[in-house]
């Protein structure tokens, strides 16, 4: 009854589209959101489902914690639905987990009246006195859920045992769960034929440890230009990321249905920004759509403190994931994750320039009153300089009156892109103002940047997604990032092969 009573007050307020709220990134109606959960595609109705960690009662993390729910036809415009799964008591939470589509009814939860593409089963962490892995199933395609009467399905008597990600492994004909023993630094790999009874197959530990492991995930990803695939193990750490606070890392290797074996000893970071965490992939995606994923676009160091009004946090854009051999320095190419954004929008206005060698007094300008735009920049560094000469290619992103701005740019001397997101609107000692990423050129001294700016978040994709950097930023209340100015502090250093700006709307 407690869950039903709480529902009354949760959906009373309409979504307020303040200037600070992103338009093409998903945000909660109100209250608090963190990890994306239970992502899946309904093949029958052609609908994408997004669930998420949700406290609808306050704009900060607190229990009771629910699975919020939204649906989309295009992975860009999301419609909020009623709460999907809730706890039994106010001091408990439905923590992170995943959803699978049980086409073959291995659980026995479904009869023939339920379309095989809508036999939805959620596997999640129930956070009470201890953390256990529980099941809930849906008879209406993922809108309402019934908890399994014999929960939990996995209990190791631990308070730090969470975040199950389940996939179907066809070769061994079983369900595979990755779940963390968070403070023992272990990813545990379990197998099951019915989602109810689980056997421990193996453990995996690698990479940065930080304070604890969270949000693991195992998925098979294609290698660009081949018919080959590799398995990728994702793993989040918080706190203690090398970037500060929370971040995601990954490992590439092989999986035989029982054990994951990395192909090398390297730890790779998913994203080099401060605001990308708890990546999860979508289940039951058509093969032609590729491997799709989304993440929480914040950082536990300051997520509860950011200056949004009545709501907190957004997701990243959906990303398509592939693998390719990427230059990490002049002598080495590593098989690495390649990420490209997936979204649909209308272009309100646009401009494009090409074949310009920038001079000190030049400025390529664009205005986007909505505060939502994307840019694509392809440039070449013409001269190899050393200190004390320090050329910079800068894109200033400013408010309409120019009073506030953030600065994105490139320094060819140290071969690094940087973002200065320092403003007076948000002061927090952990909110790193300057972030950088070293990127190898994709050709001789040539670089590509695809940027998406959505009011208070900027996602950057370098060299067709070989490197990514996701960061939030905050301007004064009701202020939008409207004006873009591309400049250089030195003559004849940067040749702009092409640059385009597009204002976006949905």
UniProtKB/TrEMBL annotation:
Residue stretches making up the Glycosyl hydrolase family 32 C-terminal domain: 350-484
Entry GO terms, CC: extracellular region; fungal-type vacuole
Signal sequence residues: 1-18
SUPFAM superfamilies linked to this entry: Arabinanase/levansucrase/invertase, Concanavalin A-like lectins/glucanases
CDD domains membership: GH32_Inu-like
GO molecular function, one term: sucrose alpha-glucosidase activity
InterPro entries in the cross-refs: ConA-like_dom_sf (IPR013320), Glyco_hydro_32 (IPR001362), Glyco_hydro_32_AS (IPR018053), Glyco_hydro_32_C (IPR013189), Glyco_hydro_32_N (IPR013148), Glyco_hydro_beta-prop_sf (IPR023296)
Every Glycosyl hydrolase family 32 N-terminal domain range: 25-328
Swiss-Prot/TrEMBL GO biological process terms: sucrose catabolic process
Keyword annotations: Glycoprotein, Glycosidase, Hydrolase, Signal
Family: Belongs to the glycosyl hydrolase 32 family.
UniProt name for this protein: Invertase
Species annotation: Hyphopichia burtonii NRRL Y-1933
Taxon lineage: Eukaryota, Fungi, Dikarya, Ascomycota, Saccharomycotina
